[in-house]
Amino acid sequence: MIPLSFLDSIAGLDEAFEATGQTVGELDMSKMNEMQMKIMGAAIMPNEYNYQTLISEADFQLLDKTLKELVGTGLDQLGRMKPAMLSNLISITLYQKYYPALSSGTSIDQYFQDEAAKRFRPVRSLETAEEQIQMLLGSQTIERQAELLVCMVKHPEMLKEQMDKLQDAYMAQDINALNTLYEEELPDDPCPGTPEEKDVMNKDRNIQWLKILPGIMQEKPSFVAVGCLHLVGTDGLINGLRKLGYKVEPVM
């Protein structure tokens, strides 16, 4: 979701990339079409659930109205989708609305994997499509997904504020600000996540990746590109790699 021109502002990036022999990402982006098919299957709610019983009539009408305004179709066509899928759809659409100049074109993950392929370098992934789909669509109950979906629809300004802070910190390459965003608990957050939910998104995945990365990096010098919030915090990859004895420092 960040323009590729941003990469020109990162000192030493090209040299670091060219010094490696393989590229590592969260997923193998060459298999995204296959993943999209799996997502569509996993995104369907079990038959015993529907939005008329999951949420109140007022919330149903608000959600339906929001979907029609943002994506052009309402619950009459999207009503079989899991709430987590609708949350992701709304978040992506709002990002594109808030940052139209930043949200088009090739993703940074895709770019580096494409560049690796051009150089006939292998691309390695840290998790499977099934693992990421389970994290996104299956790690919470349907009821909890619905609760968070309704809360997000009721408080779009909160999502905008969080996006702005993350965007500013990322574009400024301010790892301390990113760490603060990851660690902070907002006292007035109307839609707080639980510690367990936060762990599923970041900590638990980092732990698994730190088991895999040493073996991958031992094969050949590796360029690793993952979401920025996986880098920071006590349980982040930077701290985790240092605990394993690696020297981690910024490119210059």
Automatic annotation (TrEMBL):
InterPro entries hit by this protein: TraB/PrgY/GumN_fam (IPR002816), YbaP-like (IPR047111)
Protein name, UniProt field: TraB/GumN family protein
